[in-house]
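TICKET #2291
ISSUE: user wants both folds in one file
ATTACHMENT 1:
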Amino acid sequence: MKKKLNLIYLFPAPNKIYPIRDEQFIIEELVNADQNVIIINNNYFIKMLYYVIIYRIDAIIFSSLNIGKKINFLLSRINLPIFWWYFDSANASVKRLKRVNKIAPNVKIFFNRDKINFNNYIQNGINSVWLDQGVPSIINQKIDSASYNYDVGFFGSLSSVHKSRTKLLKKIDENFNLVVYTKDKKQFRKLGFKNVKNYIFKDQIPNAVSKIKIVLILNSSCASPYYWSDRIHIMIGSGAFCLTEYTKGIDETYINQKHHVIFKNKDNIISKINYWLKKDNERLDIINDGFTYAHKFHSYRNRVNEFLEHL
């Protein structure tokens, strides 16, 4: 039985774009694991000092790089274990990597997925542990659909780090009935995409993917061995048939042609989509196997149990 701990979790306050933060799924599972969690999502510096002084705190957790910047002065001065569970890639920019290398040496464990950086992190005195994200608890159903509105779907953004991804999507849009769910609706429409819809939150995704035959999981420029978007867990856990761009390690997380279908060659994406559009029964088998597997082995409950093993 795990010891009950008094934990402080620092995370940004929810807003219109992020009405529920991923940290809240983690906190929910920490509480389910019989841990006591004190939530701080504003005035981090002052409130953290208050709780550390007044209460018997066992550890502090944060996920945001911006919060790490705000409290970095205190990290090496507080006599408590501090854990940074970082969701994003440090390799998005040189500036971000420098900031990560400045903050991470001051925490006990830096949980992240940039395995490609681990040797350099060791040289910088950073104790890194690979830890993935997972399927949120608010995604708890698979909606079976008798009819589809779209051949292909994509959920994601349009930004400077995703230029090659946008080019591939445009090619797919020209050949299939593609729908894009995004925060960048105007930009996608400006590029001539036919079906562009507003970003939807995670609890609405099962209904959306039930109307799409194939959901694309595409890498960003930050993708590297064992680093991929949490979108893979969200989509498979929502009951989507996923055509997933390969990155090393993803085939160990979800089995190819059992939980999803992996592609390596972007030049063959059109023929790959055409092939799987015709395989209705096979797609359904993969959807069912993937959904069950995602919730059994890749939920945030699984991730939190892994996390607690290190505390």
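ATTACHMENT 2:
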Amino acid sequence: MVFSCKRGYHHGNLKTALIKAAMKQLQEDSLESLSLRGLARSVGVTPTAAYNHFADKTALLVDLKSAALSQFDSFLADALKDIPADQPEQRIRAMAHAYLAFSSVHPALFNLVFNWVPDLERLTEEFMVAGGRGEELLREEIVGFLQQQGQQPDDYQAAIASLSAWSMVHGITTLLKSSTVEAIIYCHNWPEDLNARDCDGCYRMLDHLVDLTLAGLRTGIPLIERHPPSPA
């Protein structure tokens, strides 16, 4: 008698296999379509085995978002590899380009990173570490840029400066992804030079916004006060 069996996942790698299966499914389906039962079926185990690693779908999504954040952080860091540390302006620009590129190369992961937020009590330590790494990387470059301008921002000013740059990059990325900029150019007769239909045009637009943001940071940091003066 010949026996054949399907090799299953032992307890050491099933969790990783489920995360990978979820990542793959997200390339084609929505976040809402994910289910632990479906993922268990896709990797050849019982639902009970999947629930041994994830108490519910939210637990799965927390770990899935942690993995997506780590991939996003690595994508940003890779953009800086060939740029010397003493060139923060070029490094900030490279991070902005990588941010926009990630939204195009990995749209499902980008949406997961920024469009799904769990209740705070469900956050894991891994999630919190991954969630702050990208901002820390940007803040380091922003502080380096400001120091080259002869400024010494405190922690509050550095955080506001980082938030300013992040808001700009995320804002234009979202507007470009949704074709909102392209629609405004068409409907409101903006100059055709503002081309949002191809990569070169989008990155050129982004570069202009980076220039404006950095110009504002050069002069605006002294205006940022942790405790604004009380009204007279």
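RESOLUTION: both attachments delivered.
EXTRA DETAIL ON ATTACHMENT 2: The chain has a mean pLDDT of 87.
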